[in-house]
Amino acid sequence: MVEICCGSYEDALNAYRGGAERVELNSALHLGGLTPTAACLSLVLRDTKVKVICMVRPRGAGFCYTPAEKEQMFAEAKELLEQGSHGIAFGFLTENAEIDVKETEKMVKLIHQYGGEAVYHRAFDCVSNPYEAMETLIRLGVDRVLTSGLSEKAMGGKELIRTLQQRYGSQIELLAGSGVNASNARELMDYTGISQVHSSCKDWQTDPTTSGEQVSYSFAPAPHESCYDVVSQELVAKLKEVLA
């Protein structure tokens, strides 16, 4: 299974045309991915045949949310599920970087009520005890965990991913992400035993209006100061070819 991280309707089209089987639909990928709009989801469902997992995340930074943020997240999840999302990617942590059991259980129940897949995203990579956290997520009924093995990149966390797959792979799906591409996906899957990878297949598109004489809306590092990130159909196809 190849899942592509998408930040827009156009990204999802490129992922689909490249052969992706599933997408994680976001907005604001430069912030790590925030909740997409219902309109964006509707367009993706109309014009592709991919399975769509929607991110529910109200802001950047960490995953310990205020009551107002939690209320917003549940409202967004309900709207996206009613719109036809095949699942929701989310993550709740306590101040101690442990799984927030109460909110996670509540979100899993909401998702399953609509027949969707409950995916715990890379908030998992901020926990201090990955084994305890994984056992908690299994107990709460989470269907899949996206992880880089608590490392910046999945290849750096391959030892932990392998161990998690060996211990828990029969009870929960593991999806490896962060830095996964056509050059390393096969090696990562062979080493860890996982059968799913998550990739951005990112390329850059230039927008000449990014900066004016005295203002700048740039968010990308040099040499992409006037660019925004997009999913590359060609890189998706290459990843699929490598894993075929």
Give a structural overview:
With 244 residues, the chain is an alpha/beta fold. The protein is 37% helix and 18% strand. Strands 1-2-3-4-5-6-7-8 form an eight-stranded parallel β-barrel, surrounded by six helices. α1 packs parallel to α8. The N and C termini lie close together (10 Å).
Topology:
Elements: E1 2-6, H1 9-18, E2 22-25, H2 38-47, E3 51-55, H3 67-83, E4 87-90, H4 101-113, E5 117-120, H5 130-140, E6 144-147, H6 158-168, E7 173-177, H7 185-192, E8 197-199, E9 202-206, E10 227-231, H8 233-243
Parallel strand pairs: 1-2, 1-8, 2-3, 3-4, 4-5, 5-6, 6-7, 7-8
Antiparallel strand pairs: 9-10
Helix pairs in contact: 1-8, 3-4
Termini separation: 10 Å
Form type: globular
Largest sheet: 8 strands, parallel, barrel
Determine Rg (CA atoms, Å). Answer: 18 Å
| Overall strand count | 10
Compact description:
By secondary structure, the protein is α/β, with parallel strands linked by helices.
Comma- or semicolon-separated keywords:
single chain; 244 residues; alpha/beta; globular
